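Assess this today:

___
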Amino acid sequence: MAENGHQLPDWEEAASPKRKSIFSKFSSHSKATVIKEEEASEEPTTSNTRLMPNRFVPRWVKSSRKHMLISIGVVILILVLILGLGLGLGLSHNPGPGYGACGFENKPSEAICAVAHALWDSLSTSTNPNENPLCGKMIRITRYNEAVGGNRSVDVKIVDKCMGCKPTDLDLSIAMFTALADEGLGRVVGSWAWLS
């Protein structure tokens, strides 16, 4: 019985090679290069052993997918932290020597704070920030301090507005912040109330 196969012309291949993803080029660097039997007798050239010269391929591309994803995650985390700090989130207020929105000269050792700009602007009665009714008002801030195992309170005077604060946040001078929490914490939760 004759076999019902047909013969392919020389110019036609039996089956097309498997398609590879674009990432298979980069992962082939970590695996040994396979050389066809007919090329085995030839001296391997740089084109047989690698796809691109090393000067064009960053080192992280040749690493595993796990390392690449970890690297991308670290870069994203660093960007988030930098943007958060750049926008004024999570920082204690350090007015330093100089004048705040109320026109008072501030020192970092004073019992002073800044209120959120949303609160500041909602009570503004004039275009002159020195005439804001919040200037000079007193606030008592209370917080549980883990280091001493109890509540700590400070009384502070409003001298400035904080542009990066949420509506109920306060920005404290460094002396008042360290009286309530460790400076390394950056941003903490507490409660506050008006005194005057």
Q: What stands out?
A: The beta strands are 98-99, 105-106, 112-116, 138-145, 150-162, 170-172, 191-194.
